[in-house]
């Protein structure tokens, strides 16, 4: 085995589950999933997303944890180690490089949205949504988007919160956040679900999310669903590989990963079923884009008993969910910088946090000053939309594809069995089959078809 414990090791398997769930459950589930479901017509999109989680996400997540635990270092050096062990070129470390870059790109727009959530903690707490209608909540959101000082300040605050935790180190920093607050978030979502059932258009929402009209879904939508499976499970960029590197040697990887995957999916579905009843009852467009969460839920909070309290608490929890994800976006790069011997945890965080902060400014301004800045080199998108597209729909699936190919086709089965403690276990063969013949093939098919459509259209 590779050298162990330069960065620390989780106390036990449950700490890994908590940390990985903390990474997986975030804005992807509560903010992004509902709005992309809304933009892509509902049910059929949800179905494709669920299939991608099961056939691509979970198998690749197992592979990623496996690679991390075998390599025991940052994704860049873990990939180098496992490639060497398999007698292959050290160029496989490029998977780690692309991941580190993807993590920084994601953090730069992620922290802008997390900043919105922080702003909403105070807005809700100060009663901005008392008795709110759709117009009021849309007004408050619009005001935020036109306020550069607020946008950039909250973005800065969130980046500082993130590097603060990562500076404190793996065991002391990252593991702590998830423990109490994730369960609390889940309880809050269930409560909102109750409100949606009682006061919103629950039936309309259920129909929208679970009855699939295939006609509503385009190939672009399929790529978005697949990309989102990677995004929501934190796959394809090394977060989970880095966390796997800190996993104790003999904990069962398969079970652990399934637990994380199921929890993540549940949070997304429940979040959708909280938001859409309010969307439909208040006449908000399901396709209103990134603002959906921020325009719909305040209407509920503004009109329910105790809404001031619950609304404030809700946005606190969303901020925390974002926080425990953001730390995993930067950890792979930080671990690598430390391994070079030229940085410590503090300086590594300053460098990478600073880079994401800088790029993030362009994302913060994508909703006002740069709203019409959609140059060809950003694929006709604003900086915010471009970085979202580039990471979720290109870099993460590509990273996942290479991980599937490496583990499925290049890694010695003996190494796998040793690492998984699963010699001759039938699940191992089923997993390996899916990882070889199904996950990578599906990723390639979706890529090729969307590319063809882009150039044909
Ligand atoms: N999974 C996180 C979410 O759903 C985002 C994330 C992506 C975190 C990639 C780490 C790596 O919000």
UniProtKB/TrEMBL annotation:
Transmembrane segment boundaries: 12-31, 43-67, 88-110, 151-170, 182-203, 223-246, 258-284, 304-330, 350-370, 390-409, 430-452
Keyword Cytoplasm: no
Top-rank taxon: Bacteria
Molecular function via GO: symporter activity
Topology with respect to the bilayer: Multi-pass membrane protein
Compartmental location: Membrane
GO CC, alphabetical: membrane
Keywords: Membrane, Symport, Transmembrane, Transmembrane helix, Transport
Name of the molecule in the record: Transporter
Species name: Saccharophagus degradans
